[in-house]
Amino acid sequence: METARIILVGIALVAWPTTGCAARRKTQTDPVTCTMLTNVGASLPVAERSLPASQWFSLLLYGYLPTGAITRPATDCSGRHTDWPSDRCSVWPEPTVPLPSQSVTAADLVVENLGGPWRLIWAMAEHFADGQAQGPVALTQFEDQGVRVYSLGILRAHPTRAKLGLKNFAGGTLLVAEGESCAVHQNQSTCSRTARLVPLVGNRFAPVDLSDTAGKCSGSTLLLLKGQGTVAQGSGRRDFQFESALSYNADGLAIHEQLAVEEPARDGTSGTFLRRVQAERRVELHAGALLATAPSILDRWIGAQKESDQPTKTTARQ
Questions:
Q1: Which of 80, 194, 271, 299 is positioned for an S-S bond with 91, CB 3.0–4.6 A?
Q2: In the predicted model, what is the mean pLDDT of the chain?
């Protein structure tokens, strides 16, 4: 009986890409995107159910095979390529380079239990040189006979020690994905932590850049929470440390930032001096746009260094 059960589940998954969400999806606000029939864990209450990584991948990644191979370019279950449209106008982070494609494994899956039958799932299909990963993200619900995806989209974020959550504001719902990137694996002293913000628009997680009230780009939605780096080299070298903290209320979030810069002494000696700058800015969600009251002080400082010290090279762990 156990063998028959597994075969039946496998047949449902193979048939999924042509009979599932791609055929049913009609509008951006359609409440149903993708579904999967499975009796794995069916004897448990929906609040206690879980699925193996292979079934989450089969649900979210088109063409997934038991070997871990997927269709390339990576495609979600609605038939959309997992392209990332944001991070085009910010000083930080700098453009990142994709790594060679590999098969997906259980390490490429993040499952966040939101309580009851709800799970927030991130299936990483691509990885990048700066430590970020990218792939479909979905809000799913366990039902009596399987799993249903209610919201679907794309997420690019740092996957180490990742934590996903949804924040509800007056202007809508926001996905917040925190994670880490470590210069030396498992050495916390070399790690930086970030938070990625992605609005939920209809039933799609839709990436955007931060903008001001006039619609002008104000920076990336990848927020550095703790990190360090270097701008320029030689006598113009400047080392920096940056920290920020997020706080939430009904209207949006406040970002409390602190930048510490160690730079050459201005009196011409070989010494250095430390300069600290603090600032606070707010981000609100309106009709799928993330409106920021100001750019990050880190963006502004790095931008100023690049203008005054051309050519410069920025190296930063984020």
A1: 299
A2: 83
Residue 32 or residue 222, greater confidence: 222
Strand pairing class (272-286; 289-292): antiparallel
For residue range 55-93, list pLDDT tens digits in order.
999 999 999 999 999 999 999 999 999 889 888 776 665
Confidence of residue 311 (pLDDT cuts 50, 70, 90): very low
Cβ atoms of residues 180 and 158 within 8 Å: yes
Angle of CA points 311, 315, 317, to nearest 5°: 160
Copy the structure tokens of residue 283.
């981000």
**Tokens matching residue 318:** 């984020």
Q: At what angle do helices 2-19 and 53-60 cross, to 10 degrees?
A: 20
Instruction: Collapse the DSSP code of 244 into the 3-class scheme (helix H, G, I; strand E, B; otherwise coil) and give the result.
Output: strand
d(C-alpha 167, C-alpha 175), whole Å: 6
What DSSP element (H or E) covers 137? Answer: strand 133-143
Based on its alpha-carbon atoms, the radius of gyration of the chain, rounded to whole angstroms, reads 22
Spatial separation of the C-alpha atoms in residues 76 and 31, rounded to whole Å: 17
CA dist 99 and 64 (Å) reads 19
> In the prediction, which pLDDT does 267 show?
65
23 has pLDDT over 50:
no
User: What is the total residue count of the chain?
Assistant: 318
193 burial type by CB count under 10 A (0-12 exposed, 13-18 middle, 19+ buried): buried
Domain range summary for the chain, segments of one domain joined by +: 2-317
**The dihedral sign for the CA sequence 288, 291, 297, 303:** positive
Q: What share of the chain is helix, strand, coil (3-state, %, to 5)?
A: 15, 45, 40
| Residue 3 backbone dihedrals phi, psi, to 5 degrees | -65, -40
pTM of the model: 0.84
Say whether pLDDT at 20 is over 70. Answer: no
